[in-house]
Design goal:
Elements: E1 2-3, E2 7-13, H1 20-30, H2 49-54, E3 61-67, E4 70-76, H3 84-90, E5 96-102, H4 109-120, E6 124-130, H5 139-153, E7 164-168, E8 173-175, H6 186-195, E9 200-201, E10 207-216, E11 220-229, E12 231-232, E13 237-241, E14 247-251, E15 255-259, E16 262-266, E17 269-270, E18 274-278, E19 288-291, E20 308-313, H7 329-342, E21 347-350, E22 356-361, H8 364-376, E23 381-384, E24 387-388, E25 391-393, E26 396-409, H9 413-422, E27 426-432, E28 437-445, H10 446-449, H11 452-459, E29 465-475, E30 487-490, E31 494-495, H12 498-505, E32 508-510, E33 517-518, E34 522-527, E35 533-535, H13 565-571, E36 576-580, E37 585-589, H14 594-609
Parallel strand pairs: 2-4, 2-5, 5-6, 6-7, 30-35
Antiparallel strand pairs: 1-9, 3-4, 7-8, 10-11, 10-19, 11-18, 12-17, 13-14, 13-19, 15-16, 15-18, 20-22, 20-23, 20-24, 21-22, 23-36, 25-26, 26-28, 26-29, 27-28, 30-34, 31-33, 32-34, 34-37, 36-37
Helix pairs in contact: 8-13
Bound molecules: guanosine-5'-triphosphate (GTP) and magnesium ion (MG).
């Protein structure tokens, strides 16, 4: 056994928005890995279109820089709790981690979650207090809280001996002592070289663990992962070992390593490095690729289970099949299967209905991102309300529970606690700071969080921040009643007109503008009362022969509330569906006519009585 002093493998972990991707920018920019004419900008690694739009990292990614002849392989990870599966997937490639903590927010639930994952794998931690340029930073307290977190999570004493650096990722500076003037990020690179253990390598036949997959239309499947033993080169025969114990034979075509944003084609790569290889077309994440002489599989990557589920089905609305070019059961299932290969914390299976699949993920956002991606690819389908996944353990029903952290103002405490107590939340902690800011920490079943984000931003006028992290499974807390008002439901098929919508606005708020196609059973707004009501939004004003001075005044409509996909997912009830097409997001009742709905509700009342 030996060490490779010319490589370090580090993962960057933190709570959402604490500045991981910005710190990677700083490392890439300082290392001058770009061609002179390359336009780079900000959040360079967040290249996927949805990542750019939302300003968050969704998928973990690899890059590398060279410092003092040492190649530092960097793994950027997402901080949002819904993408925790991504963090679990890639941490096995690293020997050390940079734990970023925001100098104002301090450690958050997801900081604890990812630090635990990293420490359990035995990674060497380096703490980076980021955003020290911000006014109001409270570094001493953040350091103390971070120390508490380590005391709670470390599995060995040496993990408590971590270095602390202070950074402004945005300005591209890192210092080792507070108050020092930062020039660049050299102290961070020095610290990585000095403190992260160089990769341990075994000599012997080739063996690598596949942590990521990519596709290329010419090269086919690309397997990405760390080499644990031996060397790999083009034309080398290998085997791929699968989850069911089966083995397939292949020949490596090309080998790449990382540098900046480029993949460098190399003639050979050795243990300790992170590589991408082509030619192994039968491979999944977690599989081991090895040479033929010695074929034992490395331990598979452990991924936490999904917590929410919803159905994806063929669009059965009266407007179905008109807007997406991919809309059949077969196309939908093939796409979901493709997603399962790379999206490790996702599950999909058939249901009683041949046109509907059950899809499970780590949270509403996890599923919403998949829906949005598919819709942009031209898919059309319908989805149901997400539900928390319950299971039976030792004969008892259990459900997922999360930690919810809210940063808000004093004036909203009352309304938030009231809303959350209806959602079975328990207040765990409440801390005020000198201003009227307050941090509330709740323990809440996942089912209570579904649909909460919308209500939360309305109640706090978009002025507060909420974050969640998965805690574990607990005995079922009991059923929850929906707290949403009724829907305004279109009663006729046709084109919505101003007059009809004006009538609807007398009852509540509307979601569509005049000129939109509607059908019977489509949800066009939110009632201001609890029950659903049917409204004919296609109804024109009756023409009369008598001209009155007021009747010709143009009707002014309040602009419709446009629900984004995530808001729609949050909004719908069990008896409703979302119709997703490349052009539209429509809401509908599952059962389109009032007769079907009343028959269904009386039979479900009968079922409940029995
Ligand atoms: N003031 C200040 N802002 C920063 C600093 N570092 C990052 N930011 C800002 O913080 C926001 C989030 O930064 P990201 O780098 O996307 O955070 P992230 O940790 O990668 O977020 P996720 O990948 O979504 O978990 C961006 O608006 C950055 O410009 C810093 O040092 N100082
Ligand atoms: Mg990021």
């Amino acid at each position: 056994m030996s060490y490779r002093s010319d490589i370090r493998n580090v993962a960057i972990i933190a709570h959402v928005d604490h500045g991981k991707t910005t710190l990677v920018d700083a490392m890439l920019k300082q290392s001058k890995v770009f061609r002179n004419n390359q336009m780079v900008g900000e959040l360079i690694m967040d290249q996927n279109a949805l990542e750019r739009e939302k300003g968050i990292t969704i998928m973990a990614k690899n890059t590398a820089v060279v410092y003092r002849d040492v190649k530092i392989n960097i793994i950027d990870t997402p901080g949002h709790a819904d993408f925790s599966g991504e963090v679990e997937r890639v941490l096995t490639m690293a020997d050390g981690c940079l734990l970023l903590v925001d100098s104002i927010e301090g450690p958050m639930p997801q900081t604890r979650f990812v630090l635990r994952l990293a420490l359990n794998l035995g990674l060497k931690p380096i703490v980076v207090i980021n955003k020290v340029d911000r006014r109001n930073s409270r570094i001493a307290e953040v350091l103390r809280l971070t120390e508490d977190l380590f005391l709670e999570s470390a599995i060995s004493a040496d993990q408590l001996d971590y270095p602390v650096l202070y950074s402004s990722a945005r300005e591209g500076t890192v210092v080792t002592e507070l108050g020092m003037k930062g020039r660049d990020i050299t102290p961070l690179l020095e610290c990585i070289l000095g403190r992260v253990t160089p990769p341990r390598v075994e000599s012997g036949p080739f063996q690598m663990l596949v942590s990521s997959l990519a596709y290329d239309s010419h090269k086919g499947k690309i397997a990405i992962g760390r080499i644990w033993r031996g060397k790999v080169a083009p034309h080398q025969p290998v085997v791929s070992m699968h989850v069911d114990g089966s083995v397939t034979h292949h020949e490596i075509v090309e080998v790449f390593t990382y540098l900046g944003l480029e993949h460098l084609k190399v003639e050979e790569a050795e243990a300790g490095d992170i590589v991408a290889v082509t030619g192994v077309d039968k491979v999944n994440i977690g599989d081991t690729i090895s040479s033929l002489e010695q074929t034992e599989a490395l331990p598979r990557i452990q991924i936490g289970e999904p917590t929410v589920e919803m159905t994806f089905g063929v669009n059965t609305s009266p407007l179905g099949g008109r807007e997406g070019h991919l809309s059949t059961t077969r196309q939908l299932w093939a796409r979901l299967c493709r997603e399962l290969e790379t999206n490790l914390s996702l599950r999909a299976q058939g249901t009683d209905s041949p046109d509907t699949f059950l899809v499970r993920g780590r949270g509403e956002l996890h599923l919403a991102i998949l829906i949005e991606t598919m819709r942009r690819e031209g898919y059309e389908f319908e989805v149901s309300k997400p539900e928390a996944i319950t299971k039976v353990v030792d004969g008892n029903l259990v459900e997922p529970v999360e930690i919810l952290t809210i940063d808000t103002k004093d004036e909203y405490i009352g309304i938030l606690t009231e809303m959350l107590s209806k959602r079975q939340a328990q207040l765990m902690d409440m801390r005020n700071d000198v201003h009227d800011h307050v941090r509330l920490v709740f323990r809440v079943p996942t089912k209570g969080l579904i649909g909460f984000r919308n209500a939360f931003s309305t109640a706090t006028r978009g002025d507060s921040i909420m974050n969640t992290a998965f805690l574990g499974y607990e005995p079922y807390h009991g059923d929850m009643v929906s707290t949403r008002n009724g829907a305004l439901v279109a009663s006729e098929q046709g084109i919505a007109v101003t007059y009809g919508l004006h009538n609807a606005q007398g009852r509540g708020c509307t979601f569509i503008e005049p000129g939109k196609l509607v059908y019977e059973g489509m949800v066009i707004g939110l009632n201001s009362r609890p029950r659903d009501i049917a409204i004919n939004v296609c109804k024109e004003k009756k023409k009369t022969n008598v001209r009155s001075s007021t009747s010709d005044i143009a009707i002014r409509l309040t602009p419709p509330v446009k629900l984004s996909l995530e808001q729609a997912v949050d909004f719908i009830n069990d008896d409703e569906l979302i119709e997703v097409t490349p052009e539209n997001i429509r809401l509908r009742k599952r059962l389109l006519t009032p007769a079907q709905r009343s028959k269904d509700s009386s039979s479900s009342r009968r079922r409940a009585k029995q």
